[in-house]
Write the structure tokens for this entry.
Amino acid sequence: MTDTTSAAVPHGGSATFAPRPGAAALPRMIRAQAGMELRIMLRNGEQLLLTMVIPVLLLVGFGATSLIDVGGGSRVDFLTPGVLALAVMSTAFTGQAIGTGFERRYGVLKRLGATPLPRFGLLAAKTLAVLAVQAVQVTVISAVALALGWSPAGGPLGALAAGALILLGTAAFSSLALLMAGTLRAEATLAAANLVYVVLLGLGGVLFPIDRYPDVIRPVTEALPITALTSGLRAVLTEGGGLPVAPLLVLAVWTVVGTVLASRFFRWE
Amino acid sequence: MGTAAVEVTDLVKRYGGTTAVAGLSFTAARGAVTALLGPNGAGKTSTIEICEGFRRADAGRVRVLGLDPAADARALKPRVGVMPQSGGVPTGARAGEWLRLMASFHADPVPPELLLERLGLTGAVRTPFRRLSGGQQQRLSLAAAVIGRPELVFLDEPTAGLDPQARRATWDLVAELRSAGVGVVLTTHYMEEAEHLADHVVIIDHGRVVAAGSTADLTDAQQELRFRTGTDLDTESLRRALPGTSQVTALPGGQYVVVTADPAGLGPEFLATLTTWCAAHGVLPEELRVQRRTLEDVFLELTGRDLRES
């Protein structure tokens, strides 16, 4: 046992561990947790590939070449909103589902549940980290697009509308990510989240105008959150329209359904 | 402060058809070390996880620092430290940053650097959790459990798989917590850990408490006689030959353990009777000795099983 002089040390024992419990202030806890989430995301090579490299490569590859037919108009003006939507989905859905799935599997969610950080604080921290990564994505993709000659329509109001769409899209994708991560095994989440990413990349009008798709699958395609976000961003940033109602509604429905199901079925371990 | 650190009464926990905890009761005092000792699958982890608020009890009453771990979780969390059996840390989180994160959840934490040094993790500060050795991962979890200066800590198998040096560091820390007035409830299947650390030992088997008390209570009351032979003995015949009510148990490796409820105890008369029986049966009792019982013997006697084998 450690030698201690009782005069200098309160409680007659080790001052280091003398009980002095107390929770930190909530904003401080959320900030610390968000910082941890963000650092882990930015350090994860596979996630960076998904969230940064692939969107930029698609934008450069298809924006600077004539590999795909975007149906008239400027190639980069058409592609950029789709790539932005893809970037939002990759972070809020794919990355978050895989990350949270493995945190659940490794008992991280359970361990955090034993700290003073409330569950709502953990969700807030995850959301902040996702939004921070998305801010970097939007900055990088916009810079590359502008270098390729992108001229976004809509002005400052258009940017605001795009921001609103991205926030709602983030909410929809995050709730679906947590639904998947909180119900499936981590390996199943890994496979399913990647599969969904690829399928939605193909179906969601990210790279091709959705009127090119067969009529049979059009109603399905248009109900997807990725299509709603893509067509909403395109309506604002390419066509210069106001807030697009139908895409916002689709995203709102996905958010409500995802949130209700996730809060009902999410298992913390 | 009048209440106990932990009070568990008639606790029951079932998983499907299996009953993991079958009416278990014990009390852990504040500022003392209580060890839940038992083989794997005895119900130790289920019990501790119910106390931590991770699982719901199917029946029974649990009070932690006088509060209900499920209903009063919010109030308890800052006051209680938790070390899970394994994992609990993101694989990509570095040891130092994880501990700083845990510190930031508390109003008045122990400085992370101090804990890293105490537990020999200074060289691993920037190492991601997945690259830490098993022992380093254990010590990091221990550090995270105590960083908030809790009143009570739950340590689930804190030294499982540790090398002797790391185990010693953990034992020293537990002793220091105790002297600082922190209550410690730990699970272990190491006898020597319970003997060395615990003020109060609760022996658990098949989801029930089979004995509880201080190590001295559990072992001092009785002495035991041990010897080894090269041949198989008729333990029933030996038992009948011995005075009073005695019990003879055969252990692996030709070991025999004898305890007795004879008022005269394991005295010279008893020894003489035993060696006479041995002589009559042509048996040489090698390494014959009379000694204080160990917790291991107590466990064996109570459950009929060797703790390390089960």
User: Anything to note?
Assistant: Residues 1-13 of chain A have pLDDT under 50 and may be disordered. DSSP finds ten helices and no strands in chain A. Residues 196 and 255 of chain A are 17 Å apart (CA to CA). The radius of gyration of chain A is 22 Å.
